[in-house]
Design goal:
Blueprint: E1 10-14, H1 20-29, E2 35-39, H2 52-55, H3 57-69, E3 73-76, H4 79-92, E4 97-98, H5 104-110, E5 115-120, H6 122-125, H7 128-137, E6 142-147, H8 150-159, H9 167-177, E7 187-190, H10 199-205, E8 210-212, H11 215-225, E9 238-242, H12 253-257, E10 261-266
Parallel strand pairs: 1-2, 1-3, 2-9, 3-4, 5-6, 5-7, 7-8, 9-10
Helix pairs in contact: 1-11, 3-4, 9-10
Length: about 270
Amino acid sequence: MSFIPSSAPLLFFDSGIGGLSVLKAVQDALPNAPIVFAADYAGLPYGTKTEAEISAPVPALIGRLVERYRPRLVTIACNTACTIALAHVRAALDVPVVGTVPAIKPAAEATQSGVIGLLGTDATVRQTYVDKLHKDHAPNMKLLRHAAPELVSAAEAKMRGEPVDPAVYVRAMAGLMDQPDGARLDVVVLGCTHFPLIEDELRAAAPHVKFVDGAAGIARRIRHLTKDHTWPVDPEEGTFVTTGPVAALNTLLPALSGFGLTQISSL
């Protein structure tokens, strides 16, 4: 392993602030890790884009971030970006890249009924990558899918301290439970990193359902990949970088500071 300075950060990338749900798990595992969190607010939302609108720009954007911040590892904390562009990013970079994909395997392990659900963006739920996860990890189980783009906006609003109509969460869960076999649904995969930020609200809409996501597994993977690395003795201020205007982040600053992201910049 080539020398990696203790100041080299972990770089997290998402379309918005959904990846904070992944960052929280990593910070619990590696509390002294320097952090750069990049949000492509100029491109938000990803879930309504075509594959072509993600597969080329995302690797280029992450490449620019790597050049600027020289991270020891990159985490794409966005299910949509990963299911479309993960292979392209890995091919373009010479640093380790950890992806975020729908947690169908742990859902399959947790279900009692054999019916699991996937809440995600339009782009994620239609991917053949999800078909492969279903085939590999839950081949004898029913997988119900529902695209819930409203939840991305709801999570962003919640983190800004803005009110959200509870009907948004009821509609999202109904999109799964109203399908054939939906009454037997007992585990739901939160297949967008924004969605764990509103898990409490989703649970209120469907108290009988268990929700799973991939954050804990990603944290374990990053800890393993960096097990021989050195870290700063004390935690440092983290950096939040946006592709949009910095002024648009004003209402997010209190939430970001809760994750130690106090250095704000633009790309």
